[in-house]
Amino acid sequence: MTFEWSAIWDAFPSLMEGARMTIKITLLGLIGGTLIGFLSGVVTTYVRVAISWRSVLIAIAAVAVIVLVLQLTSWFADTYLDFVPDYVWTALKILILLAVAWRFPAYLPRALSFLAQLYILVIRGTPIVVQVMFIYFALPLIAGWRIDAVMAAIFTLMINSGAYIAEIVRGALQSVPKGLKEAGEAMGLPFWKILAYIIGPVALRRMIPAMGNQCIISLKDSSLFIVIGVAELTRQGQEIIAANFRSVEIWGAVAVIYLILTGFIALTLKFIENRTQIV
Hints:
α5 (128-143) crosses α6, α6 crosses α8 and α9 (233-244) runs antiparallel to α10 (247-276). The chain starts with a helix and ends with a helix. It has a single domain (5-48, 106-276), classed as MetI-like (MetI-like fold). The protein is mainly α. The protein has 10 helices and no strands.
């Protein structure tokens, strides 16, 4: 068997197109995942809510009551008040939720912490392939929301990376000495200033290595979206091989491209580590 460089050269434009799609999915997914993970990590760190069978049963009962009330409201509206526009009912539901949150403000952080912990538990406990298949195939049947394959891939990577980033953020925040938080409180600073100017910079330096690892994992996980037909790098390589049967050359080129991308991420984070002087 001879190694034909011409096969790689002919496939180069398609491989670059797949690489651009891979970068797009990874970048957007990590941006959203970082936002979700940061918020979830902060809530689960500073609002302690133990997950037990009792709390899970109470949460299930609360969700069941809310769903039942919404179903009864929809039935009543469709039966007796069908002349009222849908946007009015939507606005009314939002106002009811805001009123409940305003009436019971002390329970809102605890509810958010519980939901964040449940989200992390579910996402970390299921494979990313199952998640993307559920979002792309099952969600339209359940909720009637139909999204294209690329958006399904981005959203899946967003919620998947967000769960892992939340634990990275929580670990970094917990590693910061408690004396820094107490010093900020003694100065009379609000919590968001303590987090942004005192705890945050220290925790950020400590989470950089783990965040770099998560970026590389998310980049490689994007190859799994081949199952829903996303035209990322692995999918492009598969289609090229189906046309020219040069699997050694094409898969070798795909591997080198992934290695270049992950190497760029690793070197960039090493540079950031050196600049921030991680301790």
